Model the fold of this input.
Amino acid sequence: MGEAASTPIRVSPRPATPILPLARAIERLQTPDVFEAYSPLTGEPIFAVDLGAETRWPEEMALAVARAALSELPCPSVALAQGLLAPAAEALVGEFDAVVGSPQELELIADSVFAHPLASQALVQLLRLSSGCSVHEGLVAESLVYATLQAGPEFAAWLAAKPEPRPRPRPDRPAVRIERIEGRVELWLDRPEKRNAFSAEMRDALCEGLALAVMDPSVDRVSLRGEGPVFCSGGDLDEFGTLPDPATAHAIRSTRHPARLLHALEPRVECVVHGSCVGAGVELPAFATRVVARPDASFRLPELGMGLVPGAGGTVSLPRRIGRQRAAWLALTGVPIDVETALSWRLVDAIAE
Amino acid sequence: MQLKPGTRIKSAVCATELMVIQAPAGDADVRCGGAPMLGIGDPKPDRAIDPSLKAGTQIGKRYVDAAGTIELLCTKPGEGTLALGNAPFVLKEAKPLPASD
Done:
């Protein structure tokens, strides 16, 4: 009987995430050095708190200071909430960046944060900021943060490990097919051989189709769909790293961005998604007034693993549908959710064959 | 016919429908498939397309005349060639922008 064989082996070299009981966390948040103590540069890159721990009601002043400190903390704050919460925990749970239901889930987030502490910090700061912004302001903030991370070491490391793109022939048809039936416009992402990877070409073609609907008031309904096995597999990995420079990349997103047009059309746009919906394949549909998913649909945000944040408008569209904390959960874990979860979170509005 | 930004017009001989994006004041002899354009609500005459003028129009694309003063957005595609008098309109592509990733 090898004792060692049954002992779980920790694959990740990182230390176990310290989880503070709530009373201790509130105390910690009162101290002026908390920003240095919970920072990717000078301390722990994650602030994890067990809300289930027995806590007496703190003083109002301490609670207010804790709330303010949580909203300014330079790292993700994650609340572990199992079962019923004590009143003090109830009062603070909304301030955390993400909420998890088990220590295993917490470790999933911690894995991402330890691997990409700078992107994790930027992500939660962006989500905190844009929760008080208009859609337009949120898109500007997202692009600025994205540009910052494009210049950072985590994205550079991901790029260095990325395989060289294979040369592929460019098909002789538009990346988005536009069909018009009376007042209805159907936009079909049409690169099934690339799992509808969202390329600059597809961005331009989609913007063209959406602009048509914006300009023509006789278009009363726009339907966005994907050709082939999946709706959209996210940004075209072959193009990652081809940006001119981060400042110009921000200017490009500020000039031509499907999210802005989708938002302008929001009450008229329906989206039908299927298969794996990744990155932009989750972020863009979330702007639609109605999202219908096929039963095989799943949803995943992989950008943090590349040292980035979602950059197709997802830090704006997802919180509006599923709330800031679940948007952070998706981005921080990188884990796919299935269609039932997506429906219960209201990331999609209906499931249909 | 008079073209004003926002005006919708249609081809007399094919399915093409257009929206005026910009146009100078005054009359403009815009044609499609050899026939003068109609107002969006006008009845279609029983008239055939000129077989030598079938370059076609593409939905979502913008077309400009040679002088660059008239710009039309195709809101429904068709078979005809767009022209100002006899001079064909040209497809106006969006300015190319590289990937921002």
The CA atoms of residues 144 and 250 of chain A lie 6 Å apart. The radius of gyration of chain A is 22 Å.
